[in-house]
Please model this.
Amino acid sequence: MKHPSKPRVFSRIGMRNAPVSAPPTRSEIEPGAVRELLGDIFVLSYDAAAGYPFRVAGTRICALLGRDPEG
Model:
């Protein structure tokens, strides 16, 4: 995913030097640290039957898709 806010999100949640196989856990992310970027953030989960459904989608993601992808 190539988006101008991606480096800012990763640096603020401490992923700058983290290996790709080790994303932060939910408890390690402080939403206040990325407040102005929350509209650009989305989280996917994995389900064998459903694939990769959206768990959380920011407002700009919803606007881009024209709907709320969470359901």
Notes: The chain is about 20% helix and 10% strand. The mean pLDDT is 78. The first helix runs from residue 6 to 12.
